[in-house]
């Protein structure tokens, strides 16, 4: 994922969910980025380029022990 895309996603998550969220590049992966709230890992944002329309999918797993 390009740095400018990560900055846009970071701003979007901060604006819509929580100003403390940080989007970071993933090591050795260029099709996704990691999402954190402080030091806590929340999930991964993936690029979806299907049919020429670019979108982003946020995937977050919730463990039963966290509920």
Automatic annotation (TrEMBL):
Domain of life: Bacteria
Pfam families, sorted: DUF3126 (PF11324)
Name listed for the protein in its UniProt record: DUF3126 family protein
Source organism (scientific name): Rhizobium leguminosarum
């Amino acid at each position: 994922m390009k740095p400018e895309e990560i900055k846009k996603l970071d701003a979007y998550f901060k604006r819509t969910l929580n100003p403390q969220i940080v989007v970071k590049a993933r090591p050795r992966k260029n099709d996704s980025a990691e999402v954190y709230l402080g030091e806590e890992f929340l999930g991964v944002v993936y690029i979806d380029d299907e049919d020429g329309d670019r979108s982003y999918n946020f995937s977050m797993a919730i463990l039963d022990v966290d509920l």
